[in-house]
Please model this.
Amino acid sequence: MDLPTVKVERLYRQISNVLIQFIRDGHFAPGQLLPGERDLAKQLGVSRSSVREALIALEINGWVEIRTGHGVYVRPTLPDGAGGAVEDTADEDIGVEALMEARETIEGEIAALAAKNATDAQLQDITRIVERMEVDAAAGDMETFHEHDQQFHAMIGAMTGNPVFVEITDMLWKKRKTLHYAKFERQYSDSSIIVTMCADHRIILEAIRSRSAGTAKQAMRRHIRNAQKRLFDGRGK
Model:
């Protein structure tokens, strides 16, 4: 007897497909404004952050349009058949919330080791990177800021002196390049977030320069939590 494969589906994809079924059944008509994130979360018994990820997945798959400051609307023209279902794919299998949770734990430990092992030359290099980010933030240049942000986190990975942590840092950053994450970040962040991130980076830098592993770890974890909070609490209804 051949048993079917049991598939574990990400929560935000489950939410997306529930909403798709409601749209297909006519509960939400084309062009209609969906309930707000908080209302959907309450009705579905899930977190607002999971709803926010689900709405991004729906927009990517052509079911809704997210209008910043106005809400989420069902698209006038809907996908045909099952083609618009939200399914796991090889490069989109990790949600934003899951990635941020992993980053908080892993990058905190990496920062702690960096504080112990960083060379003087590396400390000079990362200081210059932070200074460039501060210039980017003052100019509101998000694109260049994100380039320097990647260099900042990569340098901290290199400071550990462990090539495995270098690869892990690179892998975590590449997970931010998926369509789902990139769309989420564009939709729910703005230039004000880089000012907060700059302040966090300066605190992390000073902790590493002082060779305080515990302080560096906590500073990095706080930085990731701040970024997550801004993404999940900002610009929503």
Observations:
- The mean pLDDT is 89.
- Residues 122 and 159 are 7 Å apart (CA to CA).
- The chain has ten helices and two strands.
